[in-house]
Amino acid sequence: MKMSLSTTILLSVAVCLVSGYLLLLSGIWYLLVISGFISSLLVRGRWKISFPTAFFSGILLTAIYVMILPISYESAVMKEVGLIAGFSSILLFALMFLISGVLMGSGALIGNVFALLRNEDAGVSAEKTEQ
CA 58, CA 104: separation in Å to the nearest integer? Predict the structure, then answer.
């Protein structure tokens, strides 16, 4: 079944947000790569669509995550870490959003490579059966 571009983008964003939120509840930020990987398997070889969609979803997911889960000590921790590292807490928040987008986007790229390799392997096995 062929989906339209807007349907593909909306489905990819929805999958990224739902799976990413569930994975973020574990507290391990690196699991966002898995969420991008899952969503890119829906797009199938369209890395020009899946990477920006996953990147935007990662940023949006972090905004939702920060707003929904009330963490009263978050700004104090960010200030302390910023003082130790030598830059402001606002920059740390910006880095948090950017890193989430990059993690989910890299998962989308990995998923696209995986889908392309899987399609090439299927093509090779189909050629062997024809001979």
Answer: 6
Residue 3's closest CA among 43, 54, 36, 38? 43
Residue 123 has, within 13 A of its CA and on its CB side, a CA count of: 6
Q: What is the pLDDT of residues 80-94, one digit of tens each?
A: 888 888 888 788 888
> Pick from 113, 92, 119: which is nearest to 46 by CA?
113
pTM score, whole prediction: 0.80
Question: Within a 13 Å sphere around the CA of 28, how many CA atoms are in the beta-carbon half?
Answer: 7
Q: How far apart are CA 81 and CA 92, in angstroms?
A: 9
SS3 string, the chain, reads CCCCHHHHHHHHHHHHHHHHHHHHCCCCHHHHHHHHHHHHHHHCCCHHHHHHHHHHHHHHHHHHHHHHCCCCCHHHHHHHHHHHHCCCHHHHHHHHHHHHHHHHHHHHHHHHHHHHHHHHHHHHHHHHHHC
Instruction: Indicate the length of the chain as a whole number.
Output: 131
